[in-house]
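Entry 14. Ran structure prediction on the chain below.
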Amino acid sequence: MRKTFVIIFFISILFSCNTPKSLTQTTSNDSTENFIQINLHESFKIGETVGIEIINITDKPLTLLNPTETYIEILEGTQWRRLKILNCPCDAPCNAPPEEMNLLPLKSNLLKWDQKERWCGEKIEQADIRKTIVKEAIAGLYRIRIHFKLEQDNEQKRVYKEFSIIP
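Output, structure tokens:
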């Protein structure tokens, strides 16, 4: 009897523990698998456009935070480094991108990344603008971050999805 109790006890502990989350999807508090689906190929060849589809798989609206910001990181050693991706050419008069976008149930939002990292460098002589520095992506492990909040509780969540760039 005691042996049966011990076995049942350990089995209940085993099933009550949270399983570790994979590197492809992590969140601040709980699983996001019931809210957002990210469609993304597992790998892309160098120079190929990376297409990302974000789908609201709930029956309620949710809000994408910074929906036009392409937040991509590369794994360098054991650390993730955020890539520099500009929404607008250096010093160009652009409208600020939207900070939020409602995503209705079963609707999607598409993002694209041209596998280029861009940032502003030194000012160009005889001009009042800075030079845009462009660096091509290299082969490696990458991940995209999607930041959103649920309408009903206003809690912000993040989800990551990994992909590779191959030669």
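Helices lie at 2-16. Will compare against last week's run tomorrow.
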